[in-house]
Amino acid sequence: MSHSTVPRPRSEAKTPERAPGASDDATGTGPGGDKRTGRRTGGRRGGRTGSRTGKGAGKLSLRLRFRRDRTLILMTLPAVLLILVFNYIPILGNVVAFQDYDPYLSENGFVAIFQSPWVGVEQFERIFADSAFWHAVQNTFVLFFLQLVLFFPIPILLALLINSIVRPRIRAVAQAIMYLPHFFSWVLVVTVFMQIFGGAGVIAQTLRQHGYDGFDLMTNPEIFKYLVTVEMIWKDAGWGIIVFLAALSSVSNDLYEAAAMDGAGRWRRMWHITLPALRPVIALLLVLRVGDALTVGFEQLLLQRQAVGVDASDVLDTYVWWNGIRNQDFSYAAAAGLVKGVVGLALVLTANKVAHLMGEQGVYKK
Amino acid sequence: MSALADATARAAESADRRPTAPKPGRWAAPPRPVWEEEPAKAGLAGKGIALGFACFAILFPLWIVIVTSLQTKKTIDEAGGLVVVPEGITLIAYKELLSGGQVQTAALVSVGVTVVGTVFSMTVSVLCAYGLSRVGSLGHRWILMTLLATMFFGAGLIPTYLLVQALGLMDTYLALILPSAVSVFNILVLRAFFMGISPELIDSARIDGAGDLRILWQIVMPLSRAVLAVIALFYAVGYWSAWFNASIYLTDQDMMPLQNVMIQLVQKQERPVGLSAQINTGQLSPLAVQMAVMVMALLPVAVLSPFVQKHFKKGMLTGAVKG
């Protein structure tokens, strides 16, 4: 866009690995090249031409580069430290899955790890022999499937609906309302449902007051999986439309006009222009959702675990919580968490691979 | 003199902007492109119904909660519980809850954790995002990879719990803040936004002798108010909504934040400590008390998020371009 007007500042420092042209340095960082919707990644990777690396950045010695960048490195330090402590060190803590960890061996729980006996894969054998574990796996997949079928399409439909509204005010108000529940905590969402539909909720109470039978949707294991899905739709379907709206707003009006000239009606335009515009986003989100299949909602299920019973509500995450935090069977729970983590990681990586094969960006770049 | 000139210029400008006719209405439809056909009545009606239903499904439960919290015991009992049309507003439930006692303490704890946590998270994240936004600096790629990797695997609940325990954070408010203080996703959104700021601007500031901190504070941050607002909201909502960390890291009931107290009051049908007297003498409906706690939990979020709403799309889009 701007590489023709901006005389490519400092670009001789590094030759972009990519083909010169639209995605060269100026696209990402040039003054006019700030394309809000365009992919900037090309410019970023090829263009190590930020203000830091001027001419001949590669020639600077490590020491000079450090002296030049020490403020920047210092700035990242607090965040990096927090991530190292709370995300990386616990990874090492997963060794308790191969132990018979006993927190009382030492004053400090982490020191106790070094004193606990190793038991190899015994914990894993226990897990795979436990029917409750397989029950949690089953529940996880049932919920995942329901979310895929019932939850996934709704944001797309809502986005099409919102996109078809031409009055800006109505549009803004509708969007504000739909985004709202996303910001409520799960405690609040579950509590609202309980107060409205629960056995002691206002509807059941009012029915009873007027001589009808009350009902209790919150403690019924049969419908629990649908209840969770509905709660999820209430909370997050509105938020999910953002990414689709973004995709729709980048569709050029010329396409619609040309189609209309060719005699395409409202529905044909939707079918041949609007939906194809959404297709990459839908495919990408679908792939990523499948990659995240083992995570079907933790807080939401934990909050309703007691009301509806373990059989109906236990998924992998809550299973780990129950055995570890509640029953203090740390090694067993860590092993279960490790199984979930490893399978989950494999799924995420596979999903990203598929996303890349489709020519999408995925969570990380190739 | 110049102030006067400014004022006149401003007055003239605002006079220009003032429409001569009454506004065509901000609710009115903008002109249609010539090629687009007029919508059919049935289609319009269908759209209206669908949209109305979606909004109703979201707002109706909230309406019930808010209305019930404002009713006296008498009205609630007469209606049998479901009050749709309010009859006389009373703030008795809120007065009782905020006159000291468990709920008031919990609300203060929640506000404190949210404010301190958000300030801390924002400071750390903005600094880190700026540090990473100057592409090509030493170690930039390595640090980025370190952060990105955490988006793929978590350490797991049990090791994290053991770590927090080992660090001696149990039963401290730090346990509610530190473990989830930085979100890599938020850092990436900020970073992407910072990178969109013209490097020429930053270079010229550097030539004028500004250091990195000064550039961040006086140039980058004022230019990124929109995304800063969005990210601050995300962090604040995160802290305000959190209950799980408190439930596993805190044992002292008096330290519990609002969400945890709400679980006890509503889901386990307990009564707030110190309020039993009013409830037992029949002045206060337990239902109204529960609903009032829920309103206290939803109010800050419901009030704040619409203000930031117009920036969401941009923020999310910037975040979608990662790497």
Automatic annotation (TrEMBL), chain A:
PROSITE patterns: ABC_TM1 (PS50928). Residues 1-56 are annotated as: Disordered. It comes from the Bacteria. Keywords: Cell membrane, Membrane, Transmembrane, Transmembrane helix, Transport. It is a multi-pass membrane protein. It is found in: Cell membrane. The chain crosses the membrane at residues 72-91, 141-162, 183-204, 237-256, 330-351. Its main location: membrane. The keyword Cell membrane applies. Belongs to the binding-protein-dependent transport system permease family. This is Sugar ABC transporter permease.
UniProtKB/TrEMBL annotation, chain B:
Residues 1-33 are annotated as: Disordered. Residues 107-302 form the ABC transmembrane type-1 domain. Keywords: Cell membrane, Membrane, Transmembrane, Transmembrane helix, Transport. The chain crosses the membrane at residues 49-68, 106-130, 142-167, 173-194, 215-237, 287-308. GO terms for biological process: transmembrane transport. SUPFAM superfamilies: MetI-like. It is found in: Cell membrane. InterPro entries: MetI-like (IPR000515), MetI-like_sf (IPR035906). Signal peptide: none annotated. It is a multi-pass membrane protein. GO terms for cellular component: plasma membrane. Belongs to the binding-protein-dependent transport system permease family. Pfam families: BPD_transp_1 (PF00528). CDD domains: TM_PBP2. This is Carbohydrate ABC transporter permease. It comes from Streptomyces phaeolivaceus. PANTHER family: ABC TRANSPORTER PERMEASE PROTEIN MG189-RELATED-RELATED, POLYGALACTURONAN_RHAMNOGALACTURONAN TRANSPORT SYSTEM PERMEASE PROTEIN YTCP. Residues 1-12 have a biased composition (Low complexity).
